[in-house]
Amino acid sequence: MSKQNEYFPQSRPHPGETLKEWLVQEGMSTREFAELTGISKAIIRGIVKGERNLSTALAIIFGVWTNIPIHFWMNAQKNYNEYLTERKAHERLHQEIPPTCVLEQDT
User: What is the pLDDT of residue 11?
Assistant: First the structure.
């Protein structure tokens, strides 16, 4: 069993997860939300699927229409991007230095 690093979160959700939950709570489809906000359906679907990043302009629109603060949306995207960057760096480091390499401890 490998030990989890408490300082390296195992995941951080894409802001699309929050939008998806909000849409379900409101009983609204992505198409309806797109029509309400004036954002294209393709953009809304891409965000909900986690395939598209949330821009500042979209965070403002989401904040206005969902009553979820704009800073929440911006922080969610920033945290998700940071998580992906950390994960890629972590994976690259383990490719360069296999986890089986252990430093000898002083006895």
Answer: 73
What is the reported pTM? 0.74
What is the CATH number for 32?
1.10.260.40
Q: Which two tokens stand for residue 7?
A: 């300082």
Domain count, the chain: 1
**SS3 state at 86:** helix
The parent domain of residue 54 ranges over: 15-96
C-alpha torsion 70→41→53→17, nearest 10: 70
**Cα 75 from Cα 98, distance rounded (Å):** 33
- The residue with tokens 């690259």 is 92
